[in-house]
Amino acid sequence: MRAKRQNIQMELALGPGAKGEARSAGDRGTEARTACAEPERPAAGQGPSMEAVVEPGNLKKALARVRRNKGAPGIDGMTVDDLGDHLQGQWAEIRSRLLDGTYTPQPVRRVEIPKASGGTRPLGVPTVLDRFIQQAVMQVLQGDWDPTFSDASYGFRPGRSAHQAVERAQEHIRAGFAIVVDLDLEKFFDRVNHDILMGLVARRVADKRLLRLIRGFLTAGVLEGGLVGPSTKGTPQGGPLSPLLSNLMLDALDKELEKRGHRFVRYADDCNIYVRSRRAGERVMASVTRFLAQRLKLTVNADKCAVDRPAARAFLGFSFTSGPEAKRRIAPQALTRFKARVRELTRGTKSVSLAHLVSELSRYLVGWRGYFGFCETPSVLRRLDQWIRRRLRAIVWRQWKRGRTRFAALRRLGVNKHLAAKTAGSARGPWRISASPALSYALPNAFFDRLGLATVEARHAA
Fold first, then answer.
1. Secondary structure (DSSP) of 1-15
2. Alpha-carbon distance values, 299 to 180, 194, 281, 303 (Å)
């Protein structure tokens, strides 16, 4: 395997990696006014080029990223594991087509994935080769574009995270901007106007080969139901280039908000603007909605947008407490999804050992804690841990099934004879029994700790 990897690297002449993380842009602000977005600077003669895309160090970095991300095959069935052999035999021809501007991306494969809030989200899965080329293009463009993006933009950017976006929102609220204009763009990734987007790209990229390739990725088409349909708008989610192009599109919105002097935070297509009064919020909502429609041909989802107190809205899974402190808390919708997922993971467990169940559940809890442990309301996490343990006690009670088995199990776990008999003979359901003194004594917190049950309360985190 090592020899094979070395051969691939020799074929591509892969060298050291590429550019570092973006620097932060300074804050800008002018008095609020409605205006068209500032035109982007025209592309200079230098700048991103196809030669930079096929540079060995950039290719090595792209290949490593595609392998690390894995992912499903595209329409040609080629897997990530097959990519190395394909490049070893075909790279010279592929490189030639990229450099002379004749490379043609293949259509993407349509798949539907469930959304956390319900329903499904369409993804377009490019072929592995196209993913590799997209990744190489993205790295070059990102190195050039990212330093020019707004300091208030956090999604899909190196060195930036959702937690940083939530902290920035919290700063605005604590500074007295206690009303949020919560913008939701209707099916943003599916409705991006290709001509407007390519116009923005052309102001930053002079290389016509690169422009032709980016346009090719946008218009490659979608294979669905055995037929390839055209792609006339949108940036298909699923390819490495899509997030960067979406940031470029919405950078026009960022620059407009900066020009007006607004305090805002944007993470991908999720944008919150913070103002001091509802009246100001209503004015901002109306003018920004017009700007998006006229300048970017994007539609605001009126049913999901609102001008409200931050405590009544959710941003990236978090909300904020009322008052001047504005502490981070988990949004109610996120708590509802968490409990639904735990119920799903612990449903139909009659024949599953408790140890196996705890192991499966803990994997989810550790990931969830890694994100939502960022909240500043530990009592909520503590109650969730209590609820999870109570649910597991109810599962154990069901597994014991009969009164005689339950009595024997309680006695074996140290419950006195009278309490064991009383509890085993109770007509109450498992959920009520799960909070009983007998079960709390028989299955204490330490029992679940020994099984390796992960917790969501921050003080338990490893």
1. -HHHHHHHHHHHT--
2. 19, 15, 18, 12
Quote the pTM value: 0.84
Please give the pLDDT value at position 176: 95
Residue carrying the six token digits 């970017």: 296
- DSSP string computed for 137-154: HHHHHHHHHGGGS-TTB-
Taking CA atoms, 405 is separated from 311, 399, 420, 424, in Å, by 49, 10, 11, 8
- Counts for the chain of helices (H) and strands (E), in that order: 19, 10
| CA-closest candidate to residue 15, choices 59, 45, 46, 51 | 59
Per the structure block, which two tokens stand in for 457? 């309360």
The CB density around residue 84, as the number of other CB atoms within 10 Å, is 19
- Cβ neighbour number for residue 437 with a 10 Å cutoff: 11
Q: Which residues of 228-267 are buried (b: 16+ CB within 10 A; e: fewer)?
A: eeebebbbbbbbbbbbbbbbbbbbbbbbbbbbbebbbbbb
What pLDDT, on the 0 to 100 scale, is given for residue 16? 37
| DSSP sequence for 228-283 | EEP--B---BTBTHHHHHHHHHHHHHHHHHHHTT-EEEEETTEEEEEESSHHHHHH
Q: Say if residues 274 and 172 touch (Cβ distance below 8 Å).
A: yes
Look up residue 85 and give its two tokens. Answer: 């052999």
Q: Are 217 and 104 in contact (CB under 8 A)?
A: no
* Tokens, residue 142: 């990102």
How many whole angstroms separate alpha carbon 106 and alpha carbon 161? 32
**Residues 125, 111: Cα–Cα separation, whole Å:** 7
- Overall size of the chain counted in residues: 462
Residues 143 and 20: their CA atoms lie apart, in Å, by: 7
Give per-residue pLDDT as tens, 144-189.
999 999 999 999 999 999 999 999 999 999 999 999 999 999 888 8
Task: State how far the Cα of 264 lies from the Cα of 272, in Å rounded to an integer.
Answer: 6
